[in-house]
Amino acid sequence: MVKFTDDMKDRIDKAFEEKKYCVWITTSDEGYPDVSFRGSTFVYDDEHLAFWDRSLGQSTTNLEKNPNVCMLYYHGPSRVGWRFYGKATVYKEGEMRQNILKRTVKAELDKDPERKGYGVLVRVDKIRGYSGFTVLQER
């Protein structure tokens, strides 16, 4: 079972304002990885992460072809961090897109004034620490 701890929720939801970045890794259907910072990342509920995808670049293409993703959160001074593995769903329209848009940090939405971006919801299947091989939670 996967259920985010209160510490995970608090740190991820404050990451943008505290300049502690959430780094997302996507993979093309040919197997090439892509890495991107997603300042809009937030905890959607106890087992989902979400972000507003305004880049519409390589990682967007990757998400549409291969939903397997990993997100790294790391805070160096406290040596606290996690890797979240899961499957992403891209919402280009509809209620879920609107729900994600409403909860996205304003500073990120300001970079997409025409709201051309997509909502991305990630069901987390496994959580590991930021280093080593220990699995902290798994479905």
What key attributes describe this structure?
4 helices, 41% strand, globular, 139 residues, Pnp Oxidase, Chain A, eight-stranded antiparallel β-sheet, alpha+beta
Topology (elements, then pairings):
Layout: H1 6-14, E1 22-27, E2 33-37, E3 42-45, E4 48-53, H2 58-65, E5 68-75, E6 80-91, H3 95-103, H4 106-109, E7 118-129, E8 135-138
Antiparallel strand pairs: 1-2, 1-5, 3-4, 4-7, 5-6, 6-7, 7-8
- By secondary-structure content and strand pairing, the structural class works out as alpha+beta
Radius of gyration: 14 Å
Q: How would the global form be characterised? A: globular
Largest sheet: 8 strands, antiparallel
CATH architecture: Roll
The CATH homologous superfamily name equals Electron Transport, Fmn-binding Protein, Chain A
> What is the helix content?
10-25%
Whole-number total of structural domains: 1
Top CATH class: Mainly Beta
CATH topology: Pnp Oxidase, Chain A
Number of helices: 4
| Topology, number of strands | 8
In what range is the share of β-strand residues? 35-45%
Unreliable residue stretches: none
CA(first)-CA(last) distance: 4 Å
Query: What series of H and E elements makes up the topology?
Result: HEEEEHEEHHEE
> Average pLDDT, to the nearest integer?
94
